[in-house]
Write a structure and sequence with these properties.
It is built from eleven helices and no strands. With 279 residues, the protein is mainly alpha-helical. This is CAAX protease.
Length: 279
């Protein structure tokens, strides 16, 4: 807990200086997003420094194993199934449309969304499943690890609050700490005790089950990235409705149960050593 807290403080302290340096080269940036990227870099650097203490000796310990493409494609299939099934039981997420809609934007826009989905899935799955869930699995057991990591995953999505009057936000030496305090406001206001919090928790549970089914990180990356891409590449899907409709939690429970049954049925049949994807 100590290193994690120190990472937030360090990111708040250095982000204004790093922002001024980087923005002078690349142009205007969102300071809030920049703070988040600095925080992620510091957290990953901390994990690298303490990797042996966390039991992370090889890339295989995070989940980067062969096969790659088969679990990745399975994950994309699960993502298509989840989003498609959502249309069936909760048509409100489609918004007010009178015809079958088309994908938004050009090929260039789609590539940007694909890049964003891939980056989000890779970063979050490495942090939440490959590292956090992996450490919990070695420390407290399977079911408690799934519950704990899913809770952290849900809470992390509420750490995105922007400072008040953000358009008039002026950068100074204390800006990082201002963003840090605002980040935790939704958590302190218990906004995570909601349908959205439940859906994010269940999504974390589903991704965790996909991960422990072979300790291979490519399947949860496929699920996570596929959902993000499908939701954000279609103008007719309304993400806020997707995360606020209680029926979505039923969908995630069903898919999590299917994955869990599959894992329990086949997890003991193949104990052969898998090759490390890269070292």
């Amino acid at each position: 807990m100590g290193p994690d807290f120190f990472s937030f403080i360090l990111a708040a302290a250095i982000s204004p200086f790093a922002y001024l340096l980087f923005s002078s080269i690349s142009g205007p940036l969102s300071f809030v997003r920049f703070y988040h990227r600095i925080l992620e870099i510091i957290l990953l650097a901390g994990v690298f420094l303490f990797r042996k203490r966390l039991g992370l000796y090889r890339w295989e310990d995070i989940g980067f194993k062969r096969p790659v493409f088969r679990p990745l494609l399975y994950g994309l299939g699960w993502a298509i199934g989840i989003v498609g099934f959502s249309f069936v039981i909760e048509p409100d997420i489609l918004g007010n449309i009178s015809r079958f809609p088309q994908a938004t934007g050009s090929i260039e826009d789609s590539l940007k969304i694909f890049s964003k989905a891939a980056a989000v899935a890779l970063i979050e799955e490495v942090m939440m499943r490959g590292i956090l869930l992996g450490v919990f699995l070695r420390s407290i057991g399977e079911l408690p690890a799934l519950v704990a990591s899913s809770g952290v995953f849900a809470l992390s999505h509420f750490l995105n609050n922007q400072p008040q009057n953000y358009p008039d936000f002026h950068l100074n030496l204390g800006s990082g700490f201002r963003v840090l305090l605002e980040m935790f406001q939704p958590v302190l206001r218990l906004e995570w005790i909601s349908i959205q919090g439940l859906i994010l928790f269940l999504l974390g549970l589903l991704l965790g089950i996909a991960y422990i089914n072979g300790k291979n990180i490519w399947q949860p990356i496929g699920i996570h990235g596929g959902i993000v891409f499908l939701v954000h590449s279609q103008s007719w899907i309304e993400p806020e409705r997707l995360l606020s409709d209680s029926k979505e939690s039923v969908i995630l429970v069903i898919f999590s149960a299917i994955l869990w049954i599959f894992y329990r049925k086949y997890s003991g049949k193949s104990k052969g050593k898998l090759n490390v994807f890269f070292l």
